[in-house]
Amino acid sequence: MRLIGHDGEQVGIVGIKDALSRAEVSGLDLVEVAPDADPPVCKIMDFGKYRYEVTKKEKDQRKKQHVIHIKEIRLRPKTEEYDLLHKIRHAREFLEEGNRLKATIMFRGREMIYKEFGYRLLDRVVQELSDIAKVEKGPIEEGRNLVVFFMKK
After folding, report:
1. Three-class SS of residue 39?
2. By residue range, what is the domain housing residue 142?
3. pLDDT, mean of residues 32-57
4. Is 133 exposed, middle or buried (0-12, 13-18, 19+ CB in 10 A)?
5. CB 3.0 to 4.6 Å from 23: which of 30, 73, 101, 127, for a disulfide?
6. Would you tell me the crossing angle of helices 81-96 and 115-129 to the nearest 10 degrees?
7. CA angle 115, 107, 121 (to 5 degrees)
8. Cis omega before residue 39 (within 30°)?
9. What is the DSSP string of 40-64?
10. How far apart are CA 94 and CA 125, in angstroms?
11. Could you give the CA distance from residue 79 to residue 83 in angstroms, rounded to a whole number?
């Protein structure tokens, strides 16, 4: 096997018993780095410290990762003016945080007959949010709901 010392220098090709004795003398572990190589490569290192550093790097990478969430506002065709403005204010906050937004108009019972009220309400929401957001997916009918997806410009 090819052996790499604890300080990173290449010792050369040695036998398994010799490599194990060198690792034992230095008080470290013998770790197989590249088993598929010809001959296999082993390194003398502190394996516990190595695992700690690897997990720490993985944790830092996860911390730096930015996850985009889909936030949702739900409206009804008969939503009053103040409530609509309140929901739009929340939608602005969601978009400014960098999240995507899903605006849903929910129809109940016989409200399905008057879908044009829902489309008018969605047009109003699109107009109110047009300065900071663009429509990602247009009005889609999903069962008894009317849905629009927004993303920040």
Report:
1. coil
2. 70-152
3. 91
4. buried
5. 30
6. 50
7. 55
8. yes
9. PEEEEE-HHHHHHHHHHHHHHHHHH
10. 14
11. 6
Residue 127 has pLDDT above 90, yes or no: yes
Q: What would the two tokens of residue 104 be?
A: 């849903």
Structure tokens belonging to residue 143: 């069962």
Whether the pTM exceeds 0.70: the reply is no
Q: Do 140 and 80 lie in a common domain?
A: yes
Residues 112 and 46 in one domain: no
CATH of the domain at 147: 3.30.110.10
Q: Which amino acid type is present at position 132?
A: I
pLDDT above 80: residue 109: yes
| Cβ atoms 152, 135 nearer than 8 A | no
Residue 45 CB neighbours (<10 A): 19
Contacts for 84-88: CB closer than 8 Å, 24+ residues apart: 84/121, 84/124, 84/125, 88/125, 88/128, 88/129
